[in-house]
What we know:
This protein is α/β, with parallel strands linked by helices. Helix 5 crosses helix 10, helix 6 packs across helix 9 (about 210-230) and helix 10 crosses helix 11. It is globular and about 90 Å long. The model is unreliable at about 1-35, about 525-530, about 620-645 and about 750-753 (pLDDT under 50).
Amino acid sequence: MLPCGQLSQGPRVTWQHGGVTAATYSPLFPEESGGGQVVAPPPDADAVLDGLDPEQREVATALHGPVCVLAGAGTGKTRAITHRIAYGVRAGILQPGSVLAVTFTNRAAGEMRGRLRQLGAGGVQARTFHSAALRQLQFFWPKAVGGELPRLLDRKIQLVAEAAARCRIRLDRNELRDVTSEIEWAKVTQTVPADYPAAVAKSLREAPRDPAEIGQLYGMYEQLKRDRSVIDFEDVLLLTVGILQDRHDIADQIRRQYQHFVVDEYQDVSPLQQRLLDLWLGERESLCVVGDASQTIYSFTGATPDHLLNFRTRHPGATVVKLVRDYRSTPQVVQLANGLLNQARGRAAEHRLELISQRASGPEPVRTEYGDEPAEAEGTARRIRDLIAAGVPAGEIAVLFRINAQSEVYEQALADAGVPYQLRGAERFFERQEVREAGAALRGAARFGGNDALLDDVVELPSQVRAVLSTKGWTTEPPAGSGAVRDRWESLAAIVRLAEDFVRAKPDATLSDLVAELDERAAAQHAPTVQGVTLASLHAAKGLEWDAVFLVGLTEGMMPITYAKTDEQVEEERRLLYVGVTRARVHLSLSWALSRSPGGRATRRPTRFLNGLRPGSGAAGARDTRPGAGAGAERGVARRKQRGPARCRVCRKTLTDAGEMKLMRCEDCPSDMDEGLYERLRDWRADQAERLSQPAYCVFTDKTLMAIAETVPGTAGELAVISGVGVRKLDRFGADVLAICAGEDGAESAEDG
């Protein structure tokens, strides 16, 4: 990658350079972006500005008053703000000890400190919000409160578990993680326990449990902390805010110390962090913020771009500088990234930045359609192997997916291809606790299945796996929302899918055969960690970059994810894909599979976000007419004839949610369900489940019963077309269900089955 500020010497294309002045090149600091070479600091303040492009130079020299830097992906924002601080220090305008630069990760803060030392400004404080607040809290606590600062909790989840027990609320390990995350969200949005249910409803947030329960548990958690004189991570900010609000003498002392503030990744600031920043500043406006609303992807943690978008309203005289020269990605990658945002909607989209690549031309992004997920993984592994053979280091290649549960098929494909890989931000699939527990349960069932009542009435291998994993939390319907519970379900669902694929390839396979297959796969992927291809979720990839990026699994329901319901949630999914695209320097591949498994029905559709950005797509029949676009598009299989989209039978809106597709109507559309019939079906199902010693959903799910009660089938054919009623269940339960629909009592067909 070229150093930020340096222009490539390749040919220029007119559309990239619409009137933007050429950057200035300087050989200074060629290793600043991570080469590790120690270089001498610039000799004077003016030399600090050498090598900056005109917009970066404008940032560096804007040292007075509020400054807002809108910096697109790959535009050298860290370079701009570190040179700004260094220029101010070297010119004698800023005292090093009076500057506080804040960012969101220790890695980013460390990188900033390193760059400042290289530039001769080593006395500047660069910290995360929490570490800066903790230092102040430790110093001023004896003066403000007296005594020692309460002990900081290492892990709050144990105290949350105790709070749940006190409230007589049973939570498993994953529910504990999700509830803990909810408490963290409540605190950073400054929501007290009593107000939590209302805050959740107002924010359209999908709580992992009943909001009233979480509010009660949250209150008990806070009480336990007070009883034990401990504080948590969020309390560090809350207590610092409280002291600065109540003790003006302490606030004045901090303001005398820090007179100039720089905030990186400002689009990710939470309401609580903004409140602390306001107290640090007081009435002053010596503030520089840097951010990009189009990279807001952490709203589920309480982050909001509103502070960035409202900056000019709060500070009418602010200097605003836009950084749009992309030094990271080729023109082809940048054009695709711009195309994604051109279709965006909402307030953040109104402030999008049109990036202009500063690199030489590169290969077109490759769009590949595959017949099924294993074919997609194998095709990706082949292309990665070809790139490595062509000289691209394995460590400069990444495979990015929406959720961690997608990693298993890529781990397997890369292992089979002999390509080293490493996971970022997640455990290897077979090392996840829920996968280990599932493996142990399947191993026990394979060994003692003859004495296991759970398997007495289950013959097919996939059904046996579903029955065993139902004891570990797997259900036919995924849990609502995101979080640890959903992650666990996705991992177990991946094992169910693997069993279905395995028996398709080996029809006479037994549970023991499947266990042996799982063990073999796990052993193949337990090799020592090596520097190799990165496998990561899109969220974990933020702030990173690679020469080659493969964005996989880009289908409706995964991108955007199924539980993205509101317009804003869908737009955040679009921004997540944009972040993924802008991680690529040169090679970019986007792929999707039409079905889940080999031989499956090709019912999937590519993500809507690529409409108009891939050949033959577009809401209004738009064609991709860019030169060379056709050459960059591949087909993993011949395109199969696709059925039309599922539509609501009430309002005709296209359905993407699995539950809504089962009902063939939107959740919000009026239902013509026969309530009496639904209750009779539920009673019958309960009897069948008890007789079979299986969970009720193994007979029929609630959604399937609702669909039956809405359509009231009169024949086996009408019943068979309802989603969730397969051939096996039709044979087994069809007579009963049709009898109940006709107003008769269902026979006890389960025993006959």
